[in-house]
Amino acid sequence: MVVVDDGSRDDTGAVRELPVTYIRHATNLGQGAALQTGMTYALRAGAEICVHFDADGQHDCRQIESLIAPIVNGEADVTFGSRFLRKQDTALVPLKKRIVLRGGILVSWFMTGVLLSDTHNGLRALSRHALEKVQLQENGFAHATEILQRVREARLRYVEVPITINYSAYSQQKGQRLSGSFRILFDLIMARLSR
């Protein structure tokens, strides 16, 4: 397990007492940068599969086995967790968040040509082959759309896997604010214009 501390000011460093690899950014660079740091480390460490797992408590590590199964079985290079494949999972998503996430699906599809049911889910897995092809440039939350772009460009095989999200008070406090959607859209437009 690799914990990338993206310049946090809380007690994240306490995880060093656990059997994890701890990497710290001196300053906060953004979630995309933290993921790229973790992926670079995973490649250098010889990982065959890398799982992205948000630290806000909304993901359940018991779902990792089903998430990576399509990669292990040679059916996909990338798996994306989706909270919109089963009715019982969709029902757990707060209504406002559900509406914004549905809008994000359309924006991501327009920007990348990849249509998923849940484009901004933080639980995903990449094979070693995918890790070698997906190099993130987007430091912020727009990395989720950039990953789709890289997957399409590299012609990687992908599937969605149903997952359940735990929307506890803590995860909602730590997670991305709905207002952040406008920042993501701005970042995507700026990235598109700078090409």
Looking at this protein, list some descriptive labels.
195 residues; globular; single chain; alpha/beta; two-stranded parallel sheet
Tell me about this structure.
The protein is an alpha/beta fold and 195 residues long. It has one domain (51-193). 42% of the residues lie in helices and 14% in strands. It contains eight helices and six strands. It has helices at 31-44, 64-72, 87-90, 95-112, 128-133, 143-153, 169-174, 180-193; strands spanning 2-6, 21-25, 49-52, 78-82, 124-127, 158-162. Strands 3-5-4-6 form a four-stranded mixed sheet, sandwiched between helices. A two-stranded parallel sheet has the order 1-2. α4 runs parallel beside α8 (180-193). It starts with a strand and ends with a helix. 32% of the residues are buried. The mean pLDDT is 88.
Based on helices, strands and strand pairing, what is the structural class? alpha/beta
- Low-confidence parts: none
Mean pLDDT: 88
**What Rg is obtained from the alpha carbons, in whole angstroms?**
16 Å
The number of helical runs is 8
Whole-Å distance between the termini?
35 Å
Q: How much helical structure, as a percent, in the residues?
A: 40-55%
**Strand arrangement in the largest pleated sheet:** 3-5-4-6
Measured by DSSP, the beta-strand proportion falls in: 5-15%
The helix-strand sequence is: EEHEHEHHEHHEHH
- In total, the number of strands is 6
Any chance you could write out the topology, listing elements then pairs?
Blueprint: E1 2-6, E2 21-25, H1 31-44, E3 49-52, H2 64-72, E4 78-82, H3 87-90, H4 95-112, E5 124-127, H5 128-133, H6 143-153, E6 158-162, H7 169-174, H8 180-193
Parallel strand pairs: 1-2, 4-6
Antiparallel strand pairs: 3-5, 4-5
Helix pairs in contact: 4-8
